[in-house]
Amino acid sequence: MKVPSEVPVMILPETTLFPQMTLPLRIFEPRYRRMLAEVLEGGRMFAVALRHPKYKRETPMSIGGLGLVSTAIEQPDGTSLLTLLGLARVEFLGPVQLKPYRVESIRAVAAPPAEAAETQALARKVRALVRQRVKQGFVLGLTPPADPEQAKKFQQMQALANASLAQLGRQVARVKSPEQLVDLVASTLIGDPWARQILLATPQVEQRLQHLYQLLVTAESPEPPSAD
Asked: Mean of the pLDDT values across residues 3-28?
């Protein structure tokens, strides 16, 4: 796949896009509605970036995800529901346009060669933790309501959450590549956006696996980074 030299960028407060992962989005802001219309007429690609916390101006973190619009459904009110498929990690090199929406010059960020034995060993540890999570089930962290109707809905939510977790377990079992494994688990089990951003911005697969493993073991999330 050829990565374009520049793409529109959608900057969001808590969202990351990993390669080969899908991201559902609702496009409602006028600037992004215009962006989507022009993207669909072209290469159907734009990037998603986490918003940098240190700037008042809407500024992306230096690493984001390039995505392909796989489906887009326009609603009667002019908004759109779309699914974005992650294609690659990209580095933002600087804006070439700020209005009506941001366009950035980009380059692909490829993973350098990794030590196969070490990455496979770490991948096995991550798989084991995921299997443990699946076996334990998903805890909603809410007190079941006393009302019978609400309690039924709560049970349905719990069942859906456990089904999604079980599906993740099956996906993890099928994935062979350590790099695909870490991106899959990071995008689905890591809730903190800054933790996901660190994993997204780490090109070395071995380091990515090590960091993911520690996050899964300790369930700790980092503070926003002091520097991009």
From this structure: 95
